[in-house]
Specification:
single chain, 6-stranded parallel sheet, 4-stranded parallel sheet, 12 strands, 37% helix, globular
Length: 331
């Protein structure tokens, strides 16, 4: 697991694997809230490596170090299959050790990551909203390419019900409009160009006396920046929180990333994107369906209380996702 969202994706799959008697070993990279979320969900993992930072050289060195460490860790342990969410280090290591592997992701324009990860993987599992021809340049074509309907969030949130106490823990004033904010993935290679819209949105909402805006930063640098603004309507959690409950109880979500946008859409919560990179097929489809709105000016946000009920939800069986990921075992 190399990013926070991976914990959420794999949690129900790990539970189902272990419930039927399979042995599951987990590795994780120290990045964002990945380790805190593993702890929050009671998942033990072997920590191998950390994020390489902004520079390409730093990323390359971190990848090389992690590849060596993963290979030492995995050698001779008789694994039957390796599963990854975009972790090219894992699929590369699995191939070198002769272990079948599957990788899954839902954003197709992380070019270098997918050139490495897809080519090394036995199977590539993605949403059917991504046009298959966009994945051909990564060597992912049927029968190697498998696609599933809907959002990955509709699978891992299938059994989810929000926990209202998350609002009390953050001292949220329930009379105010609750907005959840997620900054852009600043350290990702596919998001190189700084987008001023998100800081503008933080500033706008942070000064709005009828709003409580909870900012969920990805990095310590982002946390320090938001904290330095000292805006009266901003809430900045000290540690990883139950973000899914927070989203479900929010009046709206504004995110410059991907997963949190799609979680809001899956839970029927109004959501705006400030993402500054090239939109992937999943977000393109959500925008076409009106489940995701592009934001160009924070003054366009519809700031009003919802009635508290979730909108239309689609719940999909995580076992369907798991069967696709385990397809390398069937040859």
């Amino acid at each position: 697991m190399t990013a926070s969202a991976h914990v959420l994706v794999f949690r129900p799959l790990i539970e189902r694997l272990r419930a039927r008697g399979d042995e599951v070993e987990i590795t994780a990279r120290e990045y964002a809230q990945t380790l805190q979320l593993l702890e929050l969900h009671g998942i033990a993992a072997e920590v191998i490596g950390r994020h390489g930072g902004r520079s390409r050289l730093g990323k390359l060195r971190a990848m090389q170090k992690r590849l060596r460490a993963l290979r030492r860790w995995g050698r001779g342990r008789d694994f039957d299959v390796a599963l990854a969410h975009g972790s090219h280090e894992l699929t590369i290591t699995a191939r070198r050790l002769g272990i079948p592997s599957s990788t899954t992701f839902d954003y197709e324009f992380a070019w270098l990551q997918h050139q490495l990860g897809c080519r090394a993987a036995t199977k590539v599992v993605v949403p059917d909203a991504i046009p298959a021809e966009r994945l051909e340049r990564y060597g992912a074509r049927p029968p190697k390419l498998l696609q599933y309907p809907g959002l990955k969030e509709e699978y891992y949130l299938a059994d989810f019900e929000p926990e209202p106490s998350v609002l009390d823990a953050l001292a949220v004033d329930r009379a105010r409009v609750l907005v959840v904010l997620r900054p852009p993935p600043d350290v990702s290679l596919y998001h190189r160009h700084s987008n001023p819209l998100f800081p503008q949105t933080v500033d706008f909402l942070g000064r709005h006396e009828d709003v409580h805006a909870v900012v969920l930063p990805r990095t310590d640098e982002q946390r320090a920046f938001v904290q330095s603004l000292a805006l009266p309507s901003i809430i900045l959690p000290e540690r990883a929180v139950d973000a899914q409950s927070l989203i479900a109880l929010a009046d709206l979500v504004v995110s410059a990333g991907g997963t949190m946008n799609r979680e809001a859409a899956a839970l029927g919560v109004p959501v705006y994107t400030t993402y500054g990179g090239r939109l992937g097929g999943v977000d393109e489809e959500l925008i076409r369906l009106g489940r995701l709105k592009p934001l160009t000016d924070p003054r366009a946000l519809e700031l009003h209380k919802r009635d508290g009920s979730l909108g239309e939800r689609v719940r999909r069986d995580p076992m369907d996702m798991l069967e696709l990921l385990l397809s390398p075992l069937r040859g």
